[in-house]
Write a structure and sequence with these properties.
The complex is a heterodimer of chains A (148) and B (196). Chain A contains four helices and five strands, in the order ααββαββαβ. Chain A folds into two domains: 32 residues, no CATH class; 106 residues, Alpha-Beta Plaits, CATH 3.30.70.1350. The relative contact order of chain A is 0.15. In chain A, α3 packs across α4. Chain A is an alpha+beta fold. With 196 residues, chain B is mostly helical. Classes of the chains: A alpha+beta (148), B mainly alpha (196).
Chain lengths: 148, 196
């Protein structure tokens, strides 16, 4: 009986315990982990004096960041495809939308913001709305803003 | 925290308070702040588990580093079939088993190095000392257990995972998990009986 009581107390103590080793390690963990390789395709951009290559993960991150400020939608998945020459061919943005949001105007805003982000990332002077096909798909709807 | 397009702050979008599923989704889309929030939220538990499975601070560091690097790489494929927490424990448990196999091949000795000391800032140093002794006694009793029962007990009693989640993490059945828990608990009760 005494053993059970002590084990219960020790278990509770361990549950609330944070190892000193973790405190020392935690910031290094983040820095090291985000350097780990994520498979990605190269995407060609254009600069006045030549070409610029970025990985698809960087492009996806820039488009996601462009949508971060939307109060009524958030990106679920962003994918891009390239031509055999590495030019961006098509961007697909799947979003979760807040219940009650008018979806057609939302899709237009997302398409413009995504095209702006692509233009800024790939160095094109004008947002390539005409050249780059941006598909918007509403994959989910939520009435909880914390899901965005 | 996400700034809205009109300059307002979007309430409830604080990364530290966001649900796991939202953080996982954002981190999959290359959001480093969301990944940092995941690390800060789940790191203490993953480290606590790995530390007691591996009994060695350096191996624990390697294990947790590798687990989070693997998580960062694999997050775009995370589909949410299990909770983020269970998924992270699965990755960590896999790394633990790899390190244990590697260590078995090189036959390294395993002295448990307690890294807990009395907190000098504690209001009641006597109480802090007892607390540290209690944790050290539990760590020593855990070290005597085979890996399977030790893992099952830590995941169930300390981390609060279900039998099904533990079975998934351990790549075994729930009946095996039950057996391991029974064995672990019987051993720990006996060993803690002798404390003080």
């Amino acid at each position: 009986m005494n053993g059970e009581r002590i084990l219960t107390e020790a278990t509770r103590a361990l549950r609330a315990h944070t190892d000193a080793g973790w405190i020392a390690l935690r910031d290094d963990v983040v820095a090291a982990a985000v350097r780990a390789f994520r498979p990605a395709a190269p995407v060609r951009g254009h600069l006045p004096g030549g070409e610029l290559w970025v990985t698809s993960t960087v492009l996806v991150g820039q488009v996601r960041a462009a949508l971060d400020g939307f109060p009524d939608a958030a990106a679920l998945r962003i994918t891009c495809t390239t031509t055999p020459d590495g030019d961006l061919d098509r961007l697909t943005v799947e979003v979760v939308a807040l219940y009650g949001t008018a979806l057609v105007p939302l899709a237009t805003r997302i398409r413009l913001a995504a095209a702006d982000a692509v233009a800024a990332t790939l160095g094109t002077a004008e947002p390539p709305v005409a050249r780059v096909h941006v598909d918007v798909s509403v994959g989910d709807v939520t009435d909880d803003p914390s899901d965005l | 925290m996400r700034p809205a397009r009109d300059g307002r702050t979007v309430l409830g979008m604080d990364d530290e308070g966001a649900p796991d599923a939202v953080l996982a989704r954002r981190a999959a889309l290359h959001d480093r702040a969301a990944f940092r929030a995941i690390v800060h939220r789940h790191g203490p538990a993953l480290y606590r588990y790995a530390r007691r499975m591996l009994d060695d601070p350096e191996d624990t560091e390697d294990c947790v580093q590798e687990a989070f690097a693997a998580a960062w790489t694999a997050l775009p494929q995370f589909e949410g079939r299990s909770s983020l927490r269970t998924w992270l424990f699965s990755i960590t448990a896999h790394k633990v088993r790899s390190l244990q196999r590697r260590r078995a091949r090189t036959a390294r000795p395993l002295p448990f190095t307690p890294d807990e000391t009395v907190d000098p800032r504690a209001v009641d140093p006597q109480r802090s000392l007892e607390h540290t002794d209690l944790l050290n006694a539990l760590n020593a009793a855990l070290r005597e257990l085979p890996s399977g029962p030790r893992s099952a007990w830590l995941l169930r009693e300390v981390e609060g995972l279900s039998y099904e989640e533990i079975a998934q993490i351990s790549a075994t059945s729930t009946s095996t998990v039950r057996g391991r828990l029974h064995r672990a608990r019987a051993h720990l009760v006996t060993r803690m009986e002798g404390w003080r």
